[in-house]
Amino acid sequence: MLKVNDVDLLSEAGLDLVFGTSAVSVEAETVSETSSFVVSGNSSLNAGVNTLTVTVTAQSGAVEVFTRTLTVAAASSVKTISGITVNGEAVVAGAVSLGRGVTSATVLVSLDSAFASYDVSGDDVLVPGANTVTIRVTAQDESFEDSEITVTVDQASSVKTLESITVDEAPVLVGGTVVKANGTTSVDVVATATSGVSTAVVTGNT
Prior knowledge:
Elements: E1 2-4, E2 7-8, E3 14-17, E4 26-28, E5 36-40, E6 48-57, E7 63-72, E8 81-86, E9 89-90, E10 95-98, E11 107-111, E12 117-121, E13 129-138, E14 144-153, E15 162-167, E16 170-172, E17 189-193
């Protein structure tokens, strides 16, 4: 019997191990109870190919050596991004827009490798207009790559013009004059701002 990490390797050439494995457990059993064995190469494993050696010595002094290959996976270098959301909005072509008044955002990044990690900077100091948010993805092998996205926060409109004015339901040109009958004490004025986010207040109509 020859088992490595509970995997039977008596008839197998070797075993693949995950990245970071530095040692394995070895169980061996000789055909003869009078034989002995010594295991070497089961610790201080490095990434790549390692050789496990089991040396069996018979009572007569005859020696037989069994070797098995232990392949430790190299660290992954994958650090690609499969998707990004900002405050639940998907980032498309490296950009996303947010509503007015937003000063910070929650950036969630989906990675192609389960062994990679990411950090986000610039997401907590947002100002009106275009902001650059940086995402650093670090692979298992500690290599990293920075990606930038543009987060645009809606700015307050500076438009303060009038689209239209009516006086007693009759349209009036902006800046125009209205003549009413003698004795009129009030008029109904409706002013519509050009911008949908602007407001218009009427005074002097009574």
